[in-house]
Design brief:
Bound molecules: nicotinamide-adenine-dinucleotide
CATH topology: Rossmann fold
Helix content: 40-55%
Order of helices and strands: EHEHEHEHEHHEHHHE
Largest sheet: 7 strands, parallel
Oligomer: single chain
Distance between the termini: 22 Å
CATH class: Alpha Beta
Radius of gyration: 17 Å
Length: about 260
């Protein structure tokens, strides 16, 4: 079977929407920014590395979309506030927030430093709190919006050596359920996507033995592609997902079934 369709979009189902994607310089975030643009959305891209961010923004622009690239650290509240203000000022609104930025600092519990714990939890979980809070204020005024959190199957099933990462991703799932309950009466839908093993810079450095062990747990017998996550995020952002709320969609090739 061939991979996901990368041909020019024939539908503009996200036309008129403004989407903010964190961690958009690489991997799943980059693919998501591109897919949202391909489907007609205007896209604000946020990440730390300006060069990689500019390259992703230029790729989205090729679809003829308005883009804004903002270098920022999502774990810092002032960065997040400035970034959200910039997006709102530039586009006049925000319709969709994709909390995708994430990192790993793997270690077994007894060797895990407090710094490794804090960096991962702050980047993966505190960031979603900061961004959701800043964007929800705008959504409330607009009487609608979507928040899509990129969690991980590891947040559902755990993984040795990833206490910090698994806890952050499990926390993101609990945050998704809670915000769905808090905000949906105001037209704000909150969902999560839980990828399994996806071919990105985050997994490229996995040792061969770990890669083979991971493959053995996936019924589809391959890692996923960033574009296969992007398709699901774009669906959740669009009109077809108007009754989906407080859900975690696993996109993992059947891992763990
Ligand atoms: P990646 O390393 O390719 O991309 C991570 C992105 O997050 C980059 O754009 C990076 O700049 C950004 N980022 C990291 N720390 C940041 C910070 N403090 N401030 C701003 N931006 C920051 O990794 P990826 O695989 O594309 O991961 C994207 C998301 O998907 C992450 O949340 C990750 O946990 C999740 N995920 C990935 C996999 C996988 O197998 N690759 C599986 C499950 C979940």
């Amino acid at each position: 079977m061939s991979g996901p369709d990368q041909s020019p979009a024939t539908t503009r189902e996200l036309s008129g929407l403004v989407c903010l994607v964190t961690g958009a310089s690489s991997g799943i975030g980059r693919a998501t920014a591109l897919e949202l643009g391909r489907r007609g959305a205007e896209v604000a891209l946020l990440a730390r590395s300006k060069d990689k961010l500019d390259s992703a923004a230029a790729a989205v622009q090729e679809f003829g979309r308005k883009v804004l690239a903002i270098p920022a650290d999502v774990s810092r509240s002032q960065d997040v506030k400035n970034a959200v203000d910039q997006v709102a000022a530039h586009f006049g609104k925000i319709d969709v927030l994709v909390n995708n930025a994430g990192t790993t600092r793997d270690n077994l519990l007894l060797r895990m430093s407090e710094e490794e714990w804090d960096e991962v939890v702050n980047t993966n979980l505190k960031s979603a709190y900061l961004l959701s809070k800043a964007v929800a204020r705008i959504f409330l005024r607009q009487k609608g919006g979507r928040i899509i959190n990129i969690t991980s199957v590891v947040g559902l099933i755990g993984n040795p050596g990833q206490a910090n990462y698994a806890a952050s991703k499990g926390g993101l799932i609990a945050l998704t359920f809670t915000l769905a309950k808090e905000l949906s009466s105001r037209g704000i839908l909150v969902n999560a996507v839980a990828p399994g093993f996806i071919e990105t810079p985050m997994t490229v450095s996995l040792p061969e033995a770990a890669r083979a062990a991971a493959l053995g747990t996936i019924p589809l017998a391959r890692f996923g592609k960033p574009e296969e996550i992007a398709q699901v995020v774009a669906f959740l952002a669009g009109p077809g997902a108007s009754y989906i709320n407080g859900t975690v969609i696993r996109v993992d090739g059947g891992l763990g079934i």
